[in-house]
Write a structure and sequence with these properties.
Number of domains: 2
Strand content: 15-25%
CATH class of the largest domain: Mainly Beta
Number of strands: 8
Radius of gyration: 19 Å
Distance between the termini: 40 Å
CATH superfamily of the largest domain: Jelly Rolls
Helix content: 40-55%
Shape: globular
Amino acid sequence: MSPVSTLRRTTRATYVGHGLVVARIEHDQRLLHGMKDRHGFVVSERGLWEFLYRGATYRQAPGIVQLKQPGEIYRDLRREGPATYDMVLFDPEILAAARAASSTTAEVVFATPQLAASDARAAALLALRAVVDRRRDDALAVETAIAEAALALVSLGASQLPAGREGRAVQRARAYLLERLAERIRLDDVADHVGVDKYHLIRTFRAQVGVPPYEFVTHARVHRARELLRRGVPAGSAATTVGFCDQSQLHRHFVRLVGTTPGRYAASARASRRSAIARR
C-alpha cells in the first residue's frame, strides 16, 4: 500500500442521470471551503474530519451521513488522514417535485447537517446509494430510490431559525443579501434592515456563517451563476445577472471557488445532459 503522503485525490462520477449526480472521492486530503448549489448528502467510507457550519463545529466520520444545504457555507477545519466518500446531489427540480407531492410550501432547510447512518430517516438515502452501486441499469429501481430519497430529504427539511436575536438577525441578513445579489449592496443597508449595527452584524455573521457578508455574497453569486450556466446561459450574461461587474470578475471568483472556468463548467454540464438523454 502506498504511504499516505503519496496518495492522490481522485474524483469520478459514478452515476449521472434522472436529475441525480453521484461522485466518489477517494484519498481526499483537502480542506474545502465553499457553498453547494444543490441539496445532497455525503456518505463517508474512510477518514475523519471536522467542519464549521452555521458557527458550530461538527465531526464527520463513517457511520454519519452529512446533509448538504445549498446556499450555505461549509468550511473544513482539519482532517485526520485521507478520506474516501460518496457525494449524492439532486437537481432542484427533484426536490421541488417531492415538496409538491408532500403538499408542503416550506423550503427544505436542514436543522442539522448530520444524521446517524443508523437513524431510520437515513434509510432511504443509503438505499439510493446502494441502488446506484448495484442496480444502476434498472431504471425502475433507480427512479424509485431517487423519489424515496427526495421525499426523505423533504421530510428532514424544517425551516428553523437559530434561537435568539442574533441568530434571527443573521438569517434575515442572509435572506436580504440573497434577494439582492444583482444589486450593489451596502453594509449599512443590511444592518439597518436587520436592526443591528454593522460591526455587531459582521461579528455575528462571521461566527454563524463562517465568512463575512461580502464573501458570502461572492459565494452566492457563483452559486447562482452555476445554475444559469447549467441552463445554457452564456457566461457574460450570467455574470451581470448575478451581480458581478463583468465576465472577468465571474471568471476570477469561479476559478477560485469551483476550481474550473465557467466555460469548462458549462461544457461539462452540456455533456452530462447529453449523456443523460442518451441513457433514456
